[in-house]
């Protein structure tokens, strides 16, 4: 699948994502935010980083860009949209995904390997994949919030869990409602998540040699 | 006007010029002759360090911004260490963050892509002030490193009352570049255009001399610099995009344009039209423009035909890029403002400050060893915050970005990262203030050996190191003696292990508010290549084997 | 010219860890009973050319909404202004 | 009861990259000429039991200093207050 990896000023993970996408044979390329043409791609990934320095609030300034209008178009057309970390924040800030991402309860940046339970398998990204994935988070503003907790649970695709997939409060790294680590839109073609699948795609970099991130990225190789 | 020049130095300037310099000229001389930029009290001894060796591509000899060594397949590893001690004492968050920004710019100045950062932090203790310092220092490093996407892969956290007023914030960076694509810091031919990127503001006016002075506790607002990691990220990305079109580059650090232009011209001359400098605030005086130390700026020497292309990359990010002058053959540094000459000084004068060797005197050390019970010794050691779990600190760093951190913080004595050519390097920074306080010479040797051992513990052999020498006021004979002794130690050990010292930095005037020097704190950052497979950080089971003789030390 | 302040705070009911932390560490030891709620937020100050206070404030409100300077799901905003001569607060 | 606002911004003359970035990338295209300077900072609101406005404000000032809620080397603070009944802003 022709996939754009969108780079805003301040994006830091674009090359890492491309490297991982190549492993699943996706036709991926980095595209700068001011030269993004949504019609040329079937999929788009908004990688992690600190777009526009995350000034004011993570993702806000990028959410205002022309490029995000293009992403919205793709989302509306049912094309695949994946936002990782800052990408998730941008999707939420632009209103393409519902909710908000607030500062971690501990009020600091946290890097940590986390287990997440895959709670929705009705999305193109999660169809038929494992139940529990191991991926690292690295963020300061990842506390997912939605007033209606029931709705949050329905949207949730990934929830922080223990290694056997139990969603328990003790493993919630940032205080998100319902341990939400990632959500999708109703249709399932737009996903945002705080953990980094691209960092869980190379066995030499993971604590146990797993490559769970590839499970999510694989859809771009189709 | 606040100058750090001594009356003897001022006399020397007057007699060389055969006239009284104007105020702007004094400031330019002051910046270039500051300890920070000129190494006038240390150069004589730094020359004794082993700076060449197998694999060294660029070393101190070339007087470049950072050193480089061969890591195979045409790739070079670029290495540099620096501190931001005084700024961090007054504004730990911005002080530490701008330290990271500065060290990153040193690496990109060579055309290298920064791939890892290390931070070595020393504060007084865990009282209210120490906590405030530590919390903000770590947050500052995290904010900058994370924002620009360079993983902080290791470092040190150490506590000692000697740092209560004067914390040490050392940051080191490694980068990679094809050896054939290293960009020099100095020019060789006249005619090149000088291109400045980034806005110039009022920040940090007087910073180079600030670092070369003790902390007065007075209003140091002028020397406070605010970090702008977002601008730093743009600078890194755009600079690496254009590196092939640039003949020489330098970051703007201590002493601002005055120092960058003079050092880049390196004996040739330069003419700069100050009215062309893009300003952040209106109404800056020509002098202020010359010595402003605003962060996130770079100076490039570019062939006329490449200027447009270079600037386009920055304009893409809405980042200012302007031709401000050119390199000329007449060896004079000239700054003009709207046609009026502001500064006109011979390059040679600026580049040759008088060197000093200060008097030395060895401290009288008490040989007596205190008797302590095993119990007391053990509990003192085990309860010392130095041995505490550092996860609180390193979990604030994005050490996974770049998908190349193989051995991560907290897993082993050194970090291991993968290079673009598939080889692996290990890096580690080490200092030992307690030993240095007792015997600076032995300590110099010990820290090199410790760094070498730390690398060995993950299966790597040291290939290059940089040192950072942090002391009190060099005019104090005991301080200066320690300084000289530690260099002798470092030098001897580096030769013994065949690890060339490819760069470093000196920081004097680290003192508490009563004017007592900090414990001598030389620091070594060493990089090594992993031979074969890197060693697993932890094993599940097996024998514990202790090598070497245990002495009563 | 008007100096318009935009204050962005969490809605009531949304946790405000920063306010909570300030309250907990900063106050309770010494000032409990004196200091009640503590709420933290973001402050942005705009210098606006406008004919009236109203015009200045509604411009900033519009910008805040259009550019999503706040996220209506979690934040509420307070907008205030005062007339200034040279813009220094 | 008094609602005391503590606003922490960079001192004049000290850079404010956050405000600059908001201005450059969010405001400028559409509103240049209308919006001048943009300055960003922190906002903390305390509910304080005090006998007078003065007492309330000086208490918050003292807390801000003692507890290092700002760094006097880089920041300046603005403290304001108003009398409130129930504390809702
Ligand atoms: N303690 C030291 N040991 C070895 N080399 C040093 C030391 N201090 C400074 N140097 C070298 O002196 C040169 C000039 O450094 P400097 O001008 O301070 O660099 P920068 O412009 O990056 O601050 C560099 O090559 C640096 O590595």
From TrEMBL, chain A:
Role played: Part of the phosphoribosylformylglycinamidine synthase complex involved in the purines biosynthetic pathway. Catalyzes the ATP-dependent conversion of formylglycinamide ribonucleotide (FGAR) and glutamine to yield formylglycinamidine ribonucleotide (FGAM) and glutamate. The FGAM synthase complex is composed of three subunits. PurQ produces an ammonia molecule by converting glutamine to glutamate. PurL transfers the ammonia molecule to FGAR to form FGAM in an ATP-dependent manner.
Compartments, as annotated in UniProt: Cytoplasm
Entry-linked HAMAP family: PurQ
GO MF term (any one): ATP binding
Signal sequence interval, chain numbering: none
Active site per database record: 85, 196, 198
Keyword Coiled coil: no
One of the GO BP terms on file: 'de novo' IMP biosynthetic process
The reaction(s) this protein catalyses: L-glutamine + H2O = L-glutamate + NH4(+); N(2)-formyl-N(1)-(5-phospho-beta-D-ribosyl)glycinamide + L-glutamine + ATP + H2O = 2-formamido-N(1)-(5-O-phospho-beta-D-ribosyl)acetamidine + L-glutamate + ADP + phosphate + H(+)
Pathway(s) served: Purine metabolism; IMP biosynthesis via de novo pathway; 5-amino-1-(5-phospho-D-ribosyl)imidazole from N(2)-formyl-N(1)-(5-phospho-D-ribosyl)glycinamide: step 1/2
EC nos: 6.3.5.3, 3.5.1.2
InterPro entries assigned: Class_I_gatase-like (IPR029062), PRibForGlyAmidine_synth_PurQ (IPR010075)
UniProt keyword Magnesium, yes or no: no
Protein's UniProt name: Phosphoribosylformylglycinamidine synthase subunit PurQ
SMART domains according to UniProt: GATase_5 (SM01211)
UniProtKB/TrEMBL annotation, chains C, D:
Gene Ontology MF term list: ATP binding; ligase activity
InterPro entries per UniProt: PurS, PurS-like_sf
Coiled-coil features, chain-numbered ranges: none
Keywords carried by this UniProt record: ATP-binding, Cytoplasm, Ligase, Nucleotide-binding, Purine biosynthesis
The organism's place on the tree of life at top rank: Archaea
GO biological process, one term: purine nucleotide biosynthetic process
Protein's name in the database: Phosphoribosylformylglycinamidine (FGAM) synthase, PurS component
Lineage of producing organism: Archaea, Thermoproteota, Thermoprotei, Sulfolobales, Sulfolobaceae
């Amino acid at each position: 699948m022709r996939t754009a990896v969108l780079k805003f000023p301040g994006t830091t993970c674009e090359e890492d994502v491309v490297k991982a996408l190549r492993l699943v044979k996706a036709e991926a390329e980095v595209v700068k935010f001011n030269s993004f043409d949504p019609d040329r791609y079937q999929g788009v990934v908004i990688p992690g980083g600190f777009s526009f320095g995350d000034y004011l609030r993570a993702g806000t300034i990028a959410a205002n860009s022309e490029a995000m209008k293009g992403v919205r178009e793709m989302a509306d057309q049912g094309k695949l949209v994946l936002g990782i970390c800052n990408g998730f924040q941008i999707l939420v800030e632009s209103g393409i995904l519902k909710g908000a991402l607030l500062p971690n309860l501990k009020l600091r940046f946290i890097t940590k390997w986390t287990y997440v339970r895959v709670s929705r398998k009705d999305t193109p990204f999660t169809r038929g994949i494992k139940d529990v994935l191991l991926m690292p988070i690295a963020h300061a503003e990842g506390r997912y919030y939605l007033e209606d907790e029931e709705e949050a649970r329905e949207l949730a695709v990934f929830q922080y869990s223990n290694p056997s997939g139990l969603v328990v409060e003790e493993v919630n790294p940032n205080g998100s409602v319902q341990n939400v680590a990632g959500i999708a839109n109703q249709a399932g073609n737009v996903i945002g998540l705080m953990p980094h699948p691209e960092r869980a795609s190379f066995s030499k970099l993971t604590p146990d040699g797993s490559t769970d991130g590839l499970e999510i990225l694989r859809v771009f190789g189709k | 006007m606040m100058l750090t020049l001594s009356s003897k130095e001022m006399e020397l300037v007057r007699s060389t010029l055969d006239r009284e310099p104007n105020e702007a000229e004094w400031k330019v001389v002051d910046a270039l002759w500051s300890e920070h930029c000129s190494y006038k009290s240390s150069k004589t001894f730094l020359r004794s360090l082993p700076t060449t060796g197998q694999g060294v591509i660029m070393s101190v000899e070339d007087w470049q911004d950072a050193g480089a060594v061969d890591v195979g397949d045409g790739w070079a590893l670029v290495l540099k260490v620096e501190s931001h001690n005084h700024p961090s004492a007054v504004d730990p968050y911005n002080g530490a963050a701008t330290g990271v920004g500065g060290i990153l710019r040193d690496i990109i100045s060579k055309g290298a892509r920064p791939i890892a950062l290390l931070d070595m932090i020393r504060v007084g203790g865990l009282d209210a002030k120490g906590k405030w310092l530590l919390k903000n220092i770590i947050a500052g490093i995290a904010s900058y490193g994370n924002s620009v996407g360079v993983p902080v892969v290791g470092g040190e956290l150490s506590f000692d009352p000697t740092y209560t007023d004067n914390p040490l914030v050392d940051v080191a960076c490694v980068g990679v570049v094809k050896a054939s694509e290293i960009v020099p810091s100095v020019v060789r031919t006249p005619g090149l255009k000088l291109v400045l990127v980034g806005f110039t503001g009022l920040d940090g006016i007087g910073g180079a001399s600030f670092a070369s002075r003790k902390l007065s506790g007075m209003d140091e607002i002028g020397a406070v610099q605010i970090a702008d990691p977002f601008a730093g990220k743009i600078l890194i990305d755009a600079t690496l995009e254009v590196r092939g079109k640039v003949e020489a580059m330098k970051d703007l650090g201590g002493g601002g344009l005055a120092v960058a232009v003079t050092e880049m011209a390196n004996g040739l001359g330069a003419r700069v039209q100050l009215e062309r400098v893009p300003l952040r605030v209106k109404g800056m005086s020509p002098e202020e423009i010359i010595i402003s130390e605003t962060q996130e700026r770079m100076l490039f020497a570019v062939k006329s035909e490449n200027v447009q292309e270079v600037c386009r990359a920055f304009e893409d990010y809405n980042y200012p890029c302007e031709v401000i002058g050119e390199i000329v053959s007449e060896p004079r540094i000239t700054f003009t403002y709207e046609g009026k000459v502001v500064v006109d000084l011979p390059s040679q004068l600026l580049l040759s400050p008088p060197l000093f060797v200060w008097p030395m005197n060895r401290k009288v050390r008490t040989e007596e060893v205190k008797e302590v019970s095993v119990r007391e010794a053990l509990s003192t050691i085990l309860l010392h915050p130095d041995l505490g779990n550092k996860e609180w600190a390193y979990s604030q760093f994005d050490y996974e970005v770049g998908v190349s951190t193989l051995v991560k913080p907290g897993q082993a004595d050194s970090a291991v990262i993968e290079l673009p050519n598939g080889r692996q390097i290990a890096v580690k920074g080490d200092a030992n203030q307690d030993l240095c306080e007792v015997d600076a010479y032995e300590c110099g040797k010990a820290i090199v050996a410790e760094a070498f051992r730390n690398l060995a513990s993950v299966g790597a052999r040291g290939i290059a190191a940089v040192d950072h020498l942090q002391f009190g006021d060099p005019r104090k004979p005991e301080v200066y003696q320690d300084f000289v002794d530690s260099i002798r130690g470092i030098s001897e050990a580096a030769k013994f292990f065949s690890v060339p010292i490819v760069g470093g930095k000196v920081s004097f005037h680290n003192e508490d508010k009563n004017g007592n020097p900090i414990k001598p704190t030389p620091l070594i950052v060493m990089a090594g290549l992993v031979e074969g497979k890197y060693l697993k950080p932890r094993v599940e089971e097996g024998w514990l084997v202790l090598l070497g003789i245990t002495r009563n030390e | 010219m008007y100096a318009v302040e935009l204050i962005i705070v969490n809605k009531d009911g949304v946790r405000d860890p920063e306010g909570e932390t300030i309250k907990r560490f900063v106050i309770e030891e010494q000032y409990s009973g004196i200091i009640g709620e503590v709420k933290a937020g973001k402050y942005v100050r705009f210098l606006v050319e406008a004919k009236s206070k109203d015009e200045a404030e509604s411009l900033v409100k519009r910008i805040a909404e259009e550019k999503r300077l706040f996220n209506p799901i979690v934040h509420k905003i307070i907008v205030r202004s005062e007339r200034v001569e040279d813009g220094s607060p």
